[in-house]
Sequence to fold (68 residues):
Amino acid sequence: MKVLKQLITVILAASLVLLTGCRVIVIHPINKKDIVRVEAGEEFVPEVDGYFFSDFYVKEVMDAKVRK
Fold:
């Protein structure tokens, strides 16, 4: 009976992992050169290639929340 209980526990644990999947979350460190605050009218020459996102875009799009 003890062996059966352990077997059921192992099967349930394995099923849980298989059904929910294993998710890998990779966190990339942000370097100082990757995010630079620039004021309007200020000349800026970036150290790396990339994109400019206005404060409006960051506030309205990147920080957007899903309503329930």
The chain has a mean pLDDT of 78.
